[in-house]
Amino acid sequence: AFKGAPEFSGEGGWRFKPRGRVQLDAGGINAPSGLSGSGNDRLGVGTELRRAWIGFEGAMPGGVGYRVDVSVGGSSVSLADAFVSYKAGRHVTLKLGNQKPFTGLEDLTANLYTSFTERSAVSEAFGFERRLGLSAQYTSGDVIVQGGVFSDNLSTISADTAKVWSVDGRVVFAPKLGSSTLHLGGSAHYKELGGSVVSSRYRARPFLHSTDLRLVDTGTLAADSETQLMLEGAWISGRFHASAESRWMKVSRPGVANSTFTGGYGEVGYLLTDDTTAYSGGVFKRIKPRHGLDKGGMGAVQVNARYDWVDLVDGGIMGGRQKTAGLSLVWIPVSNLRLLVNYGHSWVDDAAVTADGDGSYGIDSMGMRAQIDF
Amino acid sequence: AFKGAPEFSGEGGWRFKPRGRVQLDAGGINAPSGLSGSGNDRLGVGTELRRAWIGFEGAMPGGVGYRVDVSVGGSSVSLADAFVSYKAGRHVTLKLGNQKPFTGLEDLTANLYTSFTERSAVSEAFGFERRLGLSAQYTSGDVIVQGGVFSDNLSTISADTAKVWSVDGRVVFAPKLGSSTLHLGGSAHYKELGGSVVSSRYRARPFLHSTDLRLVDTGTLAADSETQLMLEGAWISGRFHASAESRWMKVSRPGVANSTFTGGYGEVGYLLTDDTTAYSGGVFKRIKPRHGLDKGGMGAVQVNARYDWVDLVDGGIMGGRQKTAGLSLVWIPVSNLRLLVNYGHSWVDDAAVTADGDGSYGIDSMGMRAQIDF
Amino acid sequence: AFKGAPEFSGEGGWRFKPRGRVQLDAGGINAPSGLSGSGNDRLGVGTELRRAWIGFEGAMPGGVGYRVDVSVGGSSVSLADAFVSYKAGRHVTLKLGNQKPFTGLEDLTANLYTSFTERSAVSEAFGFERRLGLSAQYTSGDVIVQGGVFSDNLSTISADTAKVWSVDGRVVFAPKLGSSTLHLGGSAHYKELGGSVVSSRYRARPFLHSTDLRLVDTGTLAADSETQLMLEGAWISGRFHASAESRWMKVSRPGVANSTFTGGYGEVGYLLTDDTTAYSGGVFKRIKPRHGLDKGGMGAVQVNARYDWVDLVDGGIMGGRQKTAGLSLVWIPVSNLRLLVNYGHSWVDDAAVTADGDGSYGIDSMGMRAQIDF
Asked: Chain A: nearest CA to B156, how far in angstroms?
């Protein structure tokens, strides 16, 4: 069967599917002149091949599964998901390898399905990333419990002096209420730095990814450990969805006061066409248009609004605050093609990058994406 | 169906095919002793894995298509074609992503099908490359019109300070005249440098790719923009083909006189076996032997002769001139396997690399390639 | 048919199969305190994505075959096998491309099937690697003769100043004696350094790969050439196998005395379950459990013991000696999944890394691997 690419099945539980995605971005960012550090040179109009991934996934007899996604950039390469899984029973699945440490609804939703080209700023600011680890997931009825122990991302652990480990857990309760779904969740995270990894840094791009400039940025901080708490809520009902998350990150710093940074977002979305928002397993999924371009229809069209913030000012650290209000228009002409336009206005305060010496100013961003996946 | 690799089709227009190619080169370059900059150390016998690509291409219902080719070197990686396409009507196809900006007959012909191991020197000298952009192609009868707007190659645009853009267009008129095809074409290109990209460089290897030494080389020039004009002509008739291109590149340089560099080539080829040169859509295509090794035959054998030149001397820039006369023997035992031997003699004048202080001398190159693709 | 991944066949000899493997390691190394060069910081507990490979292999009408394996790390990429092959007759196969230069039983056995997470120390110490070259293999009855000419690894030859070449040959005699197989083999290797490659280095990790610390290490030596001789012996009989290899490496050094380094190993293994050790074509192959997890069985379980040594002290070079005794437990729940635990105790003498100034000490290593391949 074709699921973007052909999926092959064999007797006894064999399964195999090629995987791939291409995301092409263009956009522009308009900021006040006089940004410190020649910041203006890094804004303006920009284009980007945001992601080009190829890989494989499959299953083997006995409940064994695997996935490998290779991400290729202009001259770089990295691994995204790269794991082996095992269905240890009706309710329990184990997963060993490079994977996301249960970072929350928005981050666990594949970057193919997010409502804006980029996730909310806290996602980047708090360093969400895949890590090498062993995890377990228990699913029963409306409840999902996830937990794991992790070392660090593959790039960091390629140094044998890195001695980082973390424990991460998440609980989701997602009852069906009539034809709607309520999503309530929370997660806790503890990461201990060690060995040659004795510092951390928190920063975020302004709405779009095409620039590498971060207006809010704590700089590199000496750190011992990070403790995070997150709360999630969502309501999914036919064409409509609303979701919100809030996060707290306490950074333990040697010899000085701890800092606690916060961030979060609230989002609403509505499908203008007769289509349905897709949610299952504690994350948002692929919206498949009922009347695609291939059937003479126009596909699915969704509008979304999001407000997100990140606050990197605490305990003597002045990393700045960034709030962004955004609107997006998503067009899904056929199931595996997605076009997205979004606009965001950001307000920064106490920013690490100043405008003519002033740390408080506003910027406007307009971005587009064309995406295909299989 | 097998097209090198299996191609899978599904109802409604689904299509999927893995892609790959391996090109293995060996060769030797014989130059006078006393090359400046220890140049002789970089010549002599050399081997190279010229290209190893893997990727996917496919199509989706509604006229959507895609291709991703990942090129892997000894320790490097890059993206070749990486685009999404859309058939917007009977005559028009749009293409968004990393692609060739309509650089001409020889460059647009896949590197799997070129008559020599390397394209003519002007191809390298004038920096032909894939760029991120949006293009449209109109085809009707014997006419092809192509045009697009592009930013830069993926490696350059990974810097957010790069602000380069180009417009590129090409027209081809290719009428059938009896059993033959005439190809007439022309293209125009304008590229504006900007942001942190304020310079350019024009240089070319001598005939083979195994060395990184360039005998002709302008060095890095401060530059504002590049304007290129190209003319193409070809005649394809059964076993025979002849083709020629000529190009002019005007480099606009801030505060000094512009420089105009030129280059081109003329080529003739003839199939010794009862096979047919393949041409369609404004480029050369795969020659499929009528009597392959698998059918007890010997496959297709082609001889080619080419003369190419590049002139990098103008407006105070002394980058040198290089002319090369080459002969090649191509053997295609079966459709997707290709063996190629070629010899070239190059004459350089005012070369950037001198031989005992003299900028005029000759060199001989002998190269071989084994290639498989799917 | 599914062979891990689906294998596709077409009329006339077409064949195509995706390839992949993931190896996930965790382990710990316990050494005396006071290692020189802050060596202790690089030991202790470590995790690693040891290998993530994706690729393709296939065949074409006329006896042509190919394979491309791309190895992806945290932020790096390289090519493993990348070759074109041709069956030149009933007994002879030619292979052109990146391949192993017939380095011996253990090294030619795929890293998917080795009895321990890492091969014996001599494998790393003597720099076994794939190289670009042309090889031929003659097989007839119980005899295999292999030989080839090679340049260097792809990373080295990307520099056009590298002028290295080698000739490598191996002979195997492997008669069936009843239901058992005897394996006798030997190989000889000559590598001449040249151009910008004028030095060599011999060193090895202690048992596990998670650290990059090498206790034994000659440092960089000026060198002209390397001559290697290797002897191989093995006995494979149902559940049981024993194998041993011994190697001598003479390093020719300009202006000083030559150094001859040695290394080798002896290994025995036994399958606790009713399964059979797999051997063919002069190497060990995949053990396929008779009663896999998918059939309600527990898969195959194998215990192995190995003693290996490497001696890098000769001719004025004091690189140290390392001996390791190891035990491993291999569990193969289903054919393409493999779990491995191994423990090793190493003794080093005259080590390059000293413990409180003493070059003689012992270390303990415990490692685990989870592996899936297709």
From this structure: 8
Structure token digits, residue A106: 């928005």
Per-domain residue ranges of chain A: 2-373
Enumerate the residues of chain C whose CB falls inside 8 A of the CB of residue A97: 22, 24, 49
Whether C14 contacts chain B with CB within 8 A: yes
Residue of A nearest to B76 (CA): A75
| Spatial CA neighbour of A28 closest among C232, B151, C231 | B151
Contact B221, B258 (CB under 8 A): no
Return the ∠ at Cα C56 (arms to C55 and C57), rounded to 5°: 140
With tokens 């095992």, the residue in question is: A86
Q: pLDDT in tens for each of the 374 residues of chain C?
A: 899 999 999 998 999 999 999 999 999 999 999 999 999 999 999 999 999 999 999 999 999 999 999 999 888 999 999 999 999 999 999 999 999 999 999 999 999 999 999 999 999 999 999 999 999 999 999 999 999 999 999 999 999 999 999 999 999 999 999 999 999 999 999 999 999 999 999 999 999 999 999 999 999 999 999 999 999 999 999 999 999 999 999 999 999 999 999 999 999 999 999 999 999 999 999 999 999 998 999 999 999 999 999 999 999 999 999 999 999 999 999 999 999 999 999 999 999 999 999 999 999 999 999 999 99
Q: In terms of DSSP bridges, do strands A259-271 and A300-314 run parallel, antiparallel, or are they unpaired?
A: antiparallel
- The CATH architecture of the domain made up of B75-373 is Beta Barrel (2.40)
**Out of 3.40.50.12370, 3.30.70.360, 2.40.160.10, 1.20.140.10, which CATH number does the structure's domain A2-373 have?**
2.40.160.10
Q: Which two tokens stand for residue C11?
A: 């009329």
**A367: distance to nearest CA of chain B, Å?**
15
CA distance A338 to B62: 13
Bridge partners, B369 (sequence order): B25, B340
What size, in residues, is chain A? 374
Nearest one of B202, B203, B215, B207 to B37, comparing CA atoms? B215
Query: A53: nearest CA in chain B?
Result: B68
Q: What gap in Å lies between CA B28 and CA B12, rounded to an integer? A: 52
Residue C23 touches chain A, beta carbons under 8 Å? no
- C333, C144 contact by CB (below 8 A): no
Separation of alpha carbons C320 and C312, rounded Å? 5
